[in-house]
Inverse folding.
């Protein structure tokens, strides 16, 4: 286990979520599936308690802690994409598997975890600053899934 690991709280679906992330994003892998050694408030002995996994190179732990705490947009995974095809692939996987669209490249998976599917070209435009950044930013503000061609056109003016 890595020294610093992100812990994501799930009701009872940590293993299903981890499997989805591993199937969807490169540089992802399943780790240990740890079962409860005894009964606990939200489960019983033998239930999946903790799932170790890596998603896009980031070490994570999924904890089946029950329904008390919910995910929100204060935490998100930002996935950098190279082109529209890659953007579409990740967006459609997250949204098409029971997730939901949001604004400006954000979406949520069916477990409520937020994802930013962010084309590299958008971040490059924002980093440049000035009028080019403003045009790209204004274009992004009208989108749900990022349209790479529209961002490129906005950058050019």
């Amino acid at each position: 286990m890595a020294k610093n690991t992100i812990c994501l709280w799930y009701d009872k679906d940590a293993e299903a979520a981890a499997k989805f992330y591993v199937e969807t994003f490169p540089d992802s892998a399943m780790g240990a599936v740890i079962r409860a050694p005894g009964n606990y408030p939200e489960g019983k002995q033998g239930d999946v308690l903790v799932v170790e996994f890596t998603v896009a190179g980031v070490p994570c732990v999924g904890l089946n802690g029950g329904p008390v705490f919910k995910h929100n947009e204060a935490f998100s995974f930002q996935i950098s994409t190279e082109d529209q095809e890659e953007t579409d692939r990740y967006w459609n996987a997250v949204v098409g598997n029971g997730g939901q669209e949001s604004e400006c490249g954000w979406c949520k998976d069916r477990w409520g975890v937020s994802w930013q599917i962010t084309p590299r070209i958008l971040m490059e435009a924002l980093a440049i600053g000035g009028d080019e950044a403003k045009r790209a930013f204004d274009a992004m503000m009208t989108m749900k899934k990022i349209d790479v061609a529209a961002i490129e056109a906005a950058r050019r003016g």
About this structure: Residues 1-69 form a domain with the 2,3-Dihydroxybiphenyl 1,2-Dioxygenase; domain 1 fold (CATH 3.10.180.10).
